[in-house]
Design goal:
- The chain is mainly α and 359 residues long.
- The C terminus is likely disordered.
- It is built from 15 helices and six strands.
- It folds into three domains: 79 residues, Dna Ligase, domain 1 (2-Layer Sandwich); 81 residues, Dna Ligase, domain 1 (2-Layer Sandwich); 138 residues, no CATH class.
- It is elongated and about 85 Å long.
- The strands form three sheets. A two-stranded antiparallel ribbon has the order 1-2.
- A hairpin with a 5-residue loop joins strand 5 and strand 6.
- The longest helix is centred in the first third of the chain and has 29 residues.
């Protein structure tokens, strides 16, 4: 009987110990610190931070009960060297396993930025810096890297026109090189094969279309008007007339003060389309989808001029006499506008159909 008792003790003690260990492991590895507290807060894993320090900060910030438990858990799963730097949202209602998995899988906070149509490359850096994604100076240094332009197939001395304006969600501390690549690749995503066929029809290069689209974007952000603005420039190019676009003049002025003068219009720069013939050497901004499409598929009109009507739209004219009348009325406040018989507020454009990759 005594022998049986001894055998029973030798059997039950290890089992009890194992059970207790399992319960402890279950508690420390898989049980949250406080299931009732679901409010999340930001936790930052710094680049090159070792997991020992990460575990200590998780405990200090009351996300987990014991730093040693999550360190052991990571060690057992061979994940202690796989944690990704970045921003995370954690709460005490998350278990150590859930927190560890989030850091291994890189489930980070994504910061939202919106790059509006017509934004210039010089305006992107401050937006990224304000969003806390990267430093402006670092981004601008990377923009000026000629090897990156070559790698991303930009046939120009600048990324201007090739960084697609859209809303993006980007992780904090994302390398500028990767950000630029994302914006550049988005342009290729939007650019359809049918548009390449259209380039052949127009006998224009992609760079020329992006240049024209950037001018259209700066002249009018109204998607309905852009094919008409495009038609004016296409008509002028065909006839050998100068484009005479104020935004191109402005782009060529360093430290522009916001007031374009007659002297500015007469100053020779590569971008002054009052002085040069044809298109400027490259885009003056980053055009959006509708402006690029308008550059490729202009409305079929006989317009050669347009002027703002003071209400966010434009008056289009076929000849200089009509245009001068519109300028007097809408720019100088002289007389009343008598639209020609062929003119309407917004003519029905005869625009060649274009497959829409966004639909």
């Amino acid at each position: 009987m005594r022998k049986l008792a001894i055998i029973f003790i030798y059997i039950t003690i290890p089992i009890a110990a194992a059970f207790a260990s399992f319960k402890a492991a279950d508690h420390y590895f898989f049980a949250p610190l406080d299931p009732a507290v679901t409010t999340t807060s930001v936790f930052v894993v710094a680049p090159d931070q070792n997991f020992r320090d990460v575990a200590a900060e998780l405990e200090v910030n009351n996300y987990i009960q014991h730093r040693y438990a999550i360190r052991l858990l990571a060690k057992l799963q061979k994940k202690d060297t796989l944690v990704m730097a970045g921003e995370y949202e954690f709460s005490p209602a998350m278990s150590p396993q859930q927190i560890l998995d989030a850091m291994i899988e890189g489930k980070m906070i994504l910061r939202k930025i919106t790059l509006k149509e017509g934004i210039t490359v010089s305006e992107i850096g401050p937006i990224l810096e304000e969003a806390g994604i990267t430093q402006r100076t670092l981004f601008e240094q990377t923009l000026n890297d000629p090897t990156l332009r070559e790698e991303l197939k930009v046939p120009a001395s600048s990324f201007e026109g090739y960084l697609f304006p859209e809303t993006y969600r980007i992780q904090r501390n994302t390398p500028p090189r990767k950000i630029i690549q994302t914006l550049r690749n988005q342009l290729d995503t939007k650019w359809s094969e049918e548009w390449n066929v259209r380039l052949l029809e127009l006998q224009m290069t992609k760079h020329q279309i992006l240049t024209l689209a950037s001018i259209i974007e700066k002249e009018s952000g109204n998607a309905e008007e852009q094919p008409f603005v495009s038609s004016v420039f296409h008509n002028r190019l065909k006839k050998g007339m100068r484009l005479q676009s104020d935004p191109t003049v402005i782009y060529g002025i360093q430290n522009f003060n916001g007031n374009i003068t007659k002297a500015d219009l007469q100053t020779s720069t590569p971008y002054n389309t009052y002085v040069i013939s044809g298109l400027p050497p490259g885009p003056i901004a980053n055009p959006g989808y509708t402006a690029i499409k308008a550059a490729l598929y202009p409305a079929e009109t006989t317009y050669f001029y347009f002027v703002g009507n003071g209400k966010g739209k434009h008056i289009f004219s076929e000849n200089l006499e009509q245009h001068n009348q519109a300028v007097n009325v809408f720019q100088r406040g002289i007389g009343t506008y008598d639209p020609p018989e062929t003119d309407t507020a917004m003519p029905d454009p005869q625009v060649p159909t274009s497959p829409d990759p966004q639909s």
